[in-house]
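Re-run with default settings, no changes from the original entry. Doing this only to confirm the output is reproducible before filing.
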Amino acid sequence: MSDIKSRVQGLNPNIRARDVKGLAATTGNIYETLQIVSERARSIAIDVKEELHAKLEEFAVHSDTIEEIHENKEQIEISKFYERMPNPVVIATEEYLDGKIEHRYKDAQVVKEDTL
């Protein structure tokens, strides 16, 4: 999977109003749609966090003394970029509207009750 940084370059980070009926058009139910988007947003948030920590770890300076504080310009720039990124919900909503999120129902087990 490509890094999140390259996927969100053209997205507007601002939240805007959406047509509820348009969002629910593919599922037929707004609650199902919100569940799909929220699960994807949760996944994106985890990916962003892991990616950020991995990039910051590349520039980490490990020292034995507590008194030394290092200011690393690369770490600051990386952190600023990730702070300016769109919210994971905005990213997930755009992916959903663009048809990039595949969703399906789990195989439901039908419980049959014996009736007399």
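Residues 35 and 43 are 12 Å apart (CA to CA). The helical segments are 4-7, 20-23, 30-58, 73-84, 88-97.
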